[in-house]
Amino acid sequence: MNEFALIFRNDFHPETGYSPNKLQEIMQQWQVWMGNMASKGQLANSGTRLGGDGKAIKPSNVVTNGPYAEIKEMITGIIVVKAGDINEATEIAKGCPILNAGGSVEVRNIIPIGAN
Question: Has residue 29 been placed in a domain?
Answer without folding.
Answer: yes
